Amino acid sequence: xxxxxxxxxxxxxxxxxxxxxxxxxxxxxxxxxxxxxxxxxxxxxxxxxxxxxxxxxxxxxxxxxxxxxxxxxxxxxxxxxxxxxxxxxxxxxxxxxxxxxxxxxxxxxxxxxxxxxxxxxxxxxxxxxxxxxxxxxxxxxxx
Length: 143
Fold this sequence. Notes:
Layout: E1 4-8, H1 18-29, E2 33-34, H2 54-67, E3 70-74, H3 80-91, E4 96-101, H4 109-112, E5 118-122, H5 125-137
Parallel strand pairs: 1-2, 1-3, 3-4, 4-5
Helix pairs in contact: 1-5
């Protein structure tokens, strides 16, 4: 318990899953620390982001990734940023768990073809939470 989780989900790629992100983050926070709570902020709009803050966002997100024990990513809404975060996490040997609604999207072969990623397709939100619980209850992987 008390793992540091980097939750990844689309922001600039689209916010249609923001409520789902919020519920997943709330669930994780029952037992563990979510470094990226803002991903589930329902008031966050793509239009609110200032490009001048991009360097600050990059610096903060990569610092959080380096601090994280694992990454949980909801990948239904395609996002270049999430793809970058996953590659960054892999290069730093941070375990990555990806979820996506298979009826809504087809993941990139760059993800599905990479055995590093633990990928879980789902149909309903209720399927995700027990899987996340098992992930969080695992002992940390040895580096």
